[in-house]
Amino acid sequence: xxxxxxxxxxxxxLLLIFVTIWIVPTFGLFISSLRxxxxxxxxxxxxxxxxTKVNEIHRMSGMESQFKEGDYFxxxxxxxxxxxxxxxxxxxxxxxxxxxxxxxEIATFxxxxxxxxxxxxxxxxxxxxxxxxxxxxxxxxxxxxxxSFTFDNYKEVLxxxxxxxxxLNTTAVALPSTLIPLIICSFFAYALTWMKFFGRDTxxxxxxxxxxxxxxxxxxxILTIYNDFGxxxxxxxxxxxxxxxAHTGFGLASTTFLLRxxxxxxxxxxxxxxxxxxxxxxDIFIRIILPLSVPAFASIFILQFLWCWNDLLVGLVFxxxxxxxxILTAKLKELLGSRGENWExxxxxxxxxxxxxxxxxxxxxxxxIRGLVAGSVKG
Length: 379
Hints:
Layout: H1 6-34, H2 37-42, E1 52-59, E2 67-69, E3 72-78, E4 87-92, E5 101-102, E6 106-108, E7 114-117, E8 122-127, E9 138-145, H3 152-159, H4 163-194, H5 200-210, H6 215-233, H7 240-264, H8 268-276, H9 281-292, H10 294-309, H11 313-318, H12 328-338, H13 343-373
Antiparallel strand pairs: 1-9, 2-3, 3-8, 4-5, 4-9, 6-7, 7-8
Helix pairs in contact: 1-13, 3-13, 4-7, 4-10, 5-7, 7-10, 10-13, 12-13
């Protein structure tokens, strides 16, 4: 049997802790996005499968709903809409004592009208005189609400709050911004590895040096250049091509560096044998390099896509904040300011923004680690 060391146990425990720290908030965000907004405002997601005690204010119907029965004028109705499953424990007729009466008891208002409330929310309000007000009196209730899940939050977020359009805008930004640098850098990395030309080492040194240049330093100069070119050719700098080129430029150095490390780890004998058989550099790249580099391409695709999808700064600088161009992160930032108290909107919008990165990662995760470490060992 394989001997289990203390360091192995500690590493497994540390890994389990990191996985738990990542999964628990994600699971909580998903559960919160499905909960009823009233329950979400008063209880945490960990209580979603238990019955929750709620305090609510309801108003009874007014004079238009009254009818006469014997010597009394009566208004009756339901406090709960549809079949909510809520059960009332107690109720009150003033805000000072919301638990003054239990269900079934008769409560008397100052005008001598009486009301009784049942457990299921049915009420009967009666008076010896005709009701004259359009609005009924308020009832303060304390009840038990069963677990409730709904897709109404997603309908509101996607179709009313503009998250659906922002989702499409972000897809239109992230996919080209990932594929363009990946295609360019694959040719560039091959040339830096297997082709001999003047200035190759200098180019490699420039790429490595550019990795340390902060993104924020180049945003305004690049936007100024885009504005000049846009004025020359009649194209707006703040547009999808502009943000594609910006993401491409910012991702060229790291993508080229990672791909070169992987391609360099491939056996030199394979390339020499292909040259002996008459293969050109193009043939070697298409028939040998590309099939063998799938893990590296997949891992770099994940990294670049996640960066573009979760980006806020570049999207704010190179795109206008209009419905046809605003991206998910910018839309969530906007909702945080205008709908900061609506937790159901924020949690649902946040989970919608996570769906595509989660799908991409889990679909390509088997290549991810393999591609990242493939260039670290020769042979």
